[in-house]
Structure formats: structure tokens, C-alpha cells
Prior knowledge:
Blueprint: E1 23-29, E2 38-41, E3 46-54, E4 56-60, E5 63-67, E6 72-75, E7 81-84, E8 91-98, H1 101-104, H2 110-120, E9 127-130, H3 136-153, H4 158-174, H5 188-204, H6 211-218, H7 222-233, H8 237-255, H9 260-266, H10 272-283, H11 287-299
InterPro entries: Cupin_2, Homeodomain-like_sf, HTH-like, HTH_AraC, HTH_AraC-typ_CS, RmlC-like_jellyroll
Organism: Blautia luti DSM 14534 = JCM 17040
GO molecular function: DNA-binding transcription factor activity; sequence-specific DNA binding
Amino acid sequence: MAEIITDTSQKELKKHGSDEFPLLVSYEKLSGYKSGSFLWHWHPEIEITLVLEGQILYKVHQCTYHMNTGDILLGNANVLHAGFMEDMKDGKYVSITFLPKIIYGAYESVLRRKYVEPFLQNFSIPAIYIDHSQPWHKLFADYVKEIIRLYEEKKEFYELDITGTLQKLWRCMLQNLPGDLPYTEHSKLERNRMREIMDYLEHNYMNKIQMKDIAEEIHLCESECSRLFKRYMNVSLFTFLQEYRVERSLEFLLSSGDSIMEVALKSGFTDSNYYAKVFSRIKGCSPQKYRKQNVTVHSVNNNSKTSI
């Protein structure tokens, strides 16, 4: 089973590509992860996700995207993101993950200053969603598929060809962004505090958590801690914690013979009835039904690629 390994700030530790060419194309599926989802994390790379089959409920900061087959999402660098099954159905996808410097080269480059850095630093743009509702979406999708093809074939000069295609994709995106897009820049301190909160939840979700515990961890008063989280995630901290506990419970639900009570307690719920109530609200069915419908597909590890 796949698992996203992160450090104490929720930064993913997986290397995407090499130092010589920091770009990686990889085929994934939600059922390949322990909990049937990839949980909250971030990385300095930009990530482009193309759904090959099924659906993905993709969350980036406070935004939620219901992605269908053929949809594409470009996630900005350094943003918290996660992906979940929709209606208990698996989602297969291919991701292109790359450091922005592939586009601009030297740090002093005008390409970085004019075309890349303003996008990376604008927190009103956590992601760009390509759902084929706009004429330019087809061209963007063609560039994505071309990059995947070039990466897989790895013919002579493929690094140059990928870089050139990536620059065309970037230009296509920039020239079609709304002209009145607001510019929002969060401080580095706020971003770090959010990552500290996420790290605390990851390591303590199975225990009783109070707002004062989190506030003390990041050295803020309780009210400001609550406002900070709501500002970033567009949901209260404890609503998020309920959802996070349910997602973490899926690993125990699908990969063990634990009773529902044992799963509930391992996931931070005080009793099985409350767990079942929250689970049903979030997943639309009981834990027992979810286990019955998903344990088979979760245990099958099919590494075959789906054609783009």
C-alpha cells in the first residue's frame, strides 16, 4: 500500500524527479493508499493531476474540486492538499510534479520575476481547475498529455522538449487567468503555523484534543488559532478534525479485523455510535457498509496503467 511520508511540517519527503531534472510523472490510484485517499500534505513542487478513470474529491486549502475523468487540476507550490474517493468509487490519475525552476532556469531570470513568482506567491490561486468548460482548456490538456508522452518515451532531447512544452502550458494558463484576480499573500509565519497545526493533528488525532492544546502548541490564543484555521481551510478546526479522523479510520476499517468499536477508539472517537454517526454524515453510509463494499477493491493492488 502506498503512503505519503511527511516531516513534522507536513512536507512530503518523496523526491520528485532528480536534482538534474526535477520533474516526475507517476500513475496512481486512490485505492493504492492505506486509507483509500492521500491525506493532507504539501511540497515545494507544482503538481498537475489528470484523472484517468473514476472521480476524485480533491481539496486544496479551502477549495474543493469534484474531479471527473478527463479533468485536470494544477496545484500551486507549497499548498496543503488532499484527495479522497467520491461515492466510495476509486479514482485513477496521473500526476506531473515539478519544481518551478524548470520553467525559468536561473533565479535572477526575468521569467521567474515576471511570469512565475507572482503566481507562486498569490494565495488567492491555490489551484487552477481544468474542466473543459473554457475554450483554452483543450490546449492546456493537450500540453499535459504531450508532457506525459515525452516523459514516458524518453527519446533524445526529451528534457528540452518537456521544458519547452511546460513553458507553453504555463503561458497558456497565465494569459487566460482573470484580469481582476485578487492578490492575497499570507505571511510565512501564518503558513508555518498552519503546518504546525496539521502536524499536531496528524500525531494526536487518536487522542482527546482541545483547542487550548493546539493553541499552546503554536503559541497563539485560542480565538486567533481558530480564526487562522478557518481562514485557510474554510471550515472550523473541529469539523476538519472529525473529517480527518474518519479518513484515518479507513485504514483500520479496511486493513484489519478490528471491530467497529476498536476502529472508533483508534481513530480518536469516544464511542462507536458517535463514530458511526459522523462517518455516515461524511461518507453517506455506515462504517459496516463501507467496509463490506470496499475491502475487496482495497486489497487488490493492480498496477496497470490506464490510457490517456
